[in-house]
């Protein structure tokens, strides 16, 4: 993407933000995320205002939801490492993830659906079938298969760190 394409995109983004200006909740959340990203980058309002070519009072207005930041400010903030997608939508962009997390996401997306389901169950992102929902430490039914045909199955109460050696 060229700088002119990015600038054009940022201008259209600014138009979209201005269109949403009647919805105070959205603008307020955008302003909160704008401030959050500035702080994540370790920038004081003074340093950010200098880097963005905006006055401290303008920055204050962006962060209080009084005014939407223009595309030029969002563009410069992106160059500093801010996640503009997050500021605008509340959803993190995978572009700003560390390499290891990007590789993990790519591998997960490339995996067959049963493997994805197993990973999510292992991480307890999705409930394990037949696991009680009322207990803090649910029972799980793990199945480990070794290289020489070993199969270990059974109920395990997960408490603390578990180590398995084969």
Overview of this structure, please?
- The protein has three domains: 3-96, lambda repressor-like DNA-binding domains (434 Repressor (Amino-terminal Domain), Orthogonal Bundle); 97-126; 130-166, no CATH class.
- The protein is elongated.
- Mean pLDDT is 76; it is low at 130-137.
- Helix 1 packs across helix 5 (71-79).
- With 166 residues, it is mainly alpha-helical.
- Strands 1-4 form a two-stranded antiparallel ribbon.
- It has eight helices and four strands, in the order H-H-H-H-H-H-H-H-E-E-E-E.
What is the C-alpha radius of gyration, as a whole number of Å?
Answer: 23 Å
- The amount of beta strand, in percent, is 5-15%
Q: Return the string of H and E elements.
A: HHHHHHHHEEEE
User: What's the number of extended β-strand segments?
Assistant: 4
Structural class by secondary-structure content: mainly alpha
Number of domains: 3
Count of helical regions: 8
At the fold tier of CATH, the topology name of the largest domain is 434 Repressor (Amino-terminal Domain)
CATH class of the largest domain: Mainly Alpha
Q: Which regions are unreliable across 5 or more consecutive residues at pLDDT < 50?
A: 130-137
General shape? elongated
Write a compact overview of the structure shown.
The protein has 8 helices and 4 strands; from the N terminus they run H-H-H-H-H-H-H-H-E-E-E-E. By secondary structure, it is mainly alpha-helical.
């Amino acid at each position: 993407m060229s700088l002119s394409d990015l600038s054009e995109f940022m201008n259209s983004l600014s138009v979209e933000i201005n269109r949403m200006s009647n919805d105070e909740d959205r603008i307020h959340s955008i302003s909160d995320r704008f401030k959050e990203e500035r702080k994540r980058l370790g920038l004081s309002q003074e340093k950010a205002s200098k880097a963005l070519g905006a006055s401290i009072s303008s920055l204050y207005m962006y962060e209080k939801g009084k005014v939407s930041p223009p595309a030029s400010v969002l563009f410069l903030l992106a160059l500093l490492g801010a996640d503009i997608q997050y500021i605008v939508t509340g959803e993190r962009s995978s572009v700003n993830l560390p390499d290891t997390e990007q590789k993990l996401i790519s591998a997960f997306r490339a995996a067959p659906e049963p493997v994805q389901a197993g990973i999510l169950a292992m991480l307890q992102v999705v409930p394990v079938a037949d696991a009680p929902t009322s207990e803090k430490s649910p029972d799980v039914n793990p199945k480990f298969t070794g290289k020489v045909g070993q199969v270990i199955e059974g109920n395990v109460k997960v408490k603390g760190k578990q180590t398995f050696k084969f």
